[in-house]
Design brief:
disordered C terminus, disordered N terminus, single chain, 20% strand, 294 residues
């Protein structure tokens, strides 16, 4: 198997250097440093309160670090606004799907393309030829994305009427509409059953195969261990380990501090640690018969 570890140098798409962030007396992130190279699924794991979502918020400009720096393609972004970071090519989803309930499924995806549009206010008001051509292209692109995500038959449905699993896929679809270089997924499997989780895992892998770089925050260890190329483990805002899935499962510090000794890694997951990535993905029940939320 090809080395999946982050490579140093110009290949890095994201890098954090000694990033710390405090809320009052609580140190949410503590001297956090790591780097990510393109075309990987990198999972950020850790117990509740470890700083996972706070890290995503720092990357996307919701919170600015108190110290340290975050680089995207070598450019410092810690002082930028969220819309400026999104324009650079970083999009995200949320723990609970944040959709426009009063819009259709198709319209939600079209909204995701707004940062890429060129027609200004006047063009929209007057519905000029250039604006009409751009709208047609946006609609065609939205239909292509919806087809890829299995949502095209429900393009005309109001977003609030589709299932939770479809809402999760729609939010990822809308994020992809902005053509991000880096996609951040915050607990995309939350609330999904086994079959839905398996379908989500297949979808994330397909995005990676298309060249997408993904940071995945997720509690479902079966899903994480099956699709992630690289894991970064947080505990109380600090990094306590990183490596390939099979390395993390054998990391005594991670097992003690994060996973504990509750035998959460079943025999099936232990076998996954020794399997190749392709074998893991092709297993008939890829993500196990239980969803462990740590």
């Amino acid at each position: 198997m090809e080395d999946a570890s982050p490579k140093k140098g110009n290949q890095e798409i994201l890098e954090t250097q000694e990033v710390s962030l405090r809320f009052g007396g609580v140190e949410a992130l503590n001297g956090l440093s790591f780097s990510i190279s393109p075309h990987q699924i990198v999972a950020i794991i850790g117990p509740n309160g470890a700083g996972k979502t706070t890290l995503l918020n720092a990357i996307t400009g919701v919170h600015s670090p108190d110290s340290g720096e975050i680089f995207f393609r070598g450019m410092p972004i810690s002082k930028l606004k969220p819309f400026e970071i999104a324009a650079l090519g970083i999009n995200r989803t949320f723990q609970q799907a944040q959709l426009f309930a009063n819009m259709t499924v198709g319209e939600n995806v079209m909204v995701g393309m707004h940062p890429k549009t060129k027609s200004g206010f006047l063009g929209g008001v007057l519905h000029l030829p250039g604006e009409r051509r751009e709208e047609n292209k946006i609609r065609e692109k939205a239909e292509t994305l919806l087809d890829f995500f299995g949502l095209l038959p429900k393009a005309a449905w109001m977003a609030t009427y589709i299932s939770i699993a479809e809402q999760k896929r729609l939010e990822i679809c809308r994020a992809m509409a902005g053509e991000p270089q880096l996609l951040l997924l915050d607990e995309p499997a939350a609330g999904l059953n086994i079959r839905e989780t398996e379908g989500l895992g297949d979808l994330i892998v397909k995005l990676k195969e298309r060249g997408q770089t993904i940071i995945l925050v997720e509690h479902n260890m079966h899903l994480v261990m099956s699709i992630a190329d690289w894991l970064i483990v947080l505990h109380h805002g600090s990094k306590i380990g990183e490596g390939r899935p099979e390395e993390i499962q054998k990391n005594s510090r991670v097992v003690e501090a994060y996973l504990g000794t509750s035998k959460i890694f079943t025999a099936e997951i232990a076998e996954d640690a020794e399997a190749t990535e392709n074998n893991r993905i092709r297993k008939s029940n890829k993500y196990g018969f239980q969803v462990f939320r740590i």
